Amino acid sequence: MELVSVDAIEAAADRIAGVAVRTPLLPCPWADPDRPLWLKPENLQPVGAFKIRGAFNAIAALDDEQRSRGVVAYSSGNHAQAVAYAAKVFEIEAWIVVPVDTPSVKVEATRAHGAEVVLSAVGEREVVAAEVVQRTGATLIPPFDHVDVIAGQGTIGLEIIADLAADLVLVPVSGGGLISGIAVAVKAKSPSTQVWAVEPELAADTAASLAAGELTPWSVADRNRTIADGLRSQPSALTFAHQRSLVDGIVTVSEDEIRRAVTTIARGARLIAEPSGAVATAAYLFRGDELPRGKTVAVVSGGNMDPELARELLV
After folding, report:
1. 40, 51, 106, 187: which one is catalytic?
2. Sorting pLDDT into bands at 50, 70 and 90, what band is 272?
């Protein structure tokens, strides 16, 4: 299977310039001085998560006729907001399919961008999205299984290596679009830098798949146990091919470790990270003995946290 190229990622960087924020690397003086840590705060994006990069790049890559028919997306929240935001920028229609258990803060933010939200049963969002595409003639922008989405997410990797000679980059993993793009960019620009995936123990289908050397599906019910609601998808053939080829390792983190990382990021870096966005930092904090040492970057992938959960974790 052909992987996304670094040339495609560099082209994506040009497309998204001025729309996606070029987030800084934030040094963490509170971290272990023997393993210096920087955070890549993608929670500072206009939609509160990295997803704007891939969504905007994919819509920008469509021709005028395709865009005129609108776009469809399915998502647990952050990709939904990103596609809705990008559609608003391009002044086109968007239909966003979200499961009924999606945090309300993400659903309302998606509606606020002008998209039509279509609720689906848990585990049925892809089926409902296909029905909307059939009904409207719009173009599907999937959350990770798409070369232009992967290329957009890969711009994070370009920025990391441009800013720091990192030894290790820690990336949350679920569907795998984020780590696929970052790994392509990092390995092209700094082959010695290691890229590791981080996954919740309760949704560790990627870890199981990498260990088996083939996709090993977990049930929706199993994956939905984790508090990290943005990490409940599983890799596609495309993203799994990227990970098998380019990702150096994977660690899993517990629910308690994720919760504690949310608090640490808030207190130490003054950043709001949703649980999905805190898993990379959780790996640094609690699984350091499983990771390579050296200058480490943890990607904080998003900060769209349900208010009730925020009150629980940030007291």
Report:
1. 51
2. very high
Q: What is the pLDDT of residue 48?
A: 94
pLDDT at 106 over 90: no
**Does residue 187 have an active-site annotation?**
no
Q: Please give the model's pTM, rounded to 2 decimal places.
A: 0.95
Catalytic residue among 5, 68, 75, 76: 76
Whether 51 is a known active-site residue: answer yes
SS (H, E, C) the chain: CCCCCHHHHHHHHHHHECCECCCCCEECCCCCCCCCEEEEEHHHCCCCECHHHHHHHHHHCCCHHHHHCCEEEECCCHHHHHHHHHHHHHCCCEEEEEECCCCHHHHHHHHHCCCEEEEECCCCHHHHHHHHHHHHCCEECCCCCCHHHHHHHHHHHHHHHHHCCCCEEEEECCCCHHHHHHHHHHHHHCCCCEEEEEEEHHHCHHHHHHHHCCCCCCCHHHHCCCCCHHHCCCCCHHHHHHHHHHCCEEEEECHHHHHHHHHHHHHHHCCCCCHHHHHHHHHHHHCHHHCCCCCEEEEECECCCCHHHHHHHCC
Q: What is the pLDDT of residue 315?
A: 74
pLDDT greater than 90 at residue 108: no
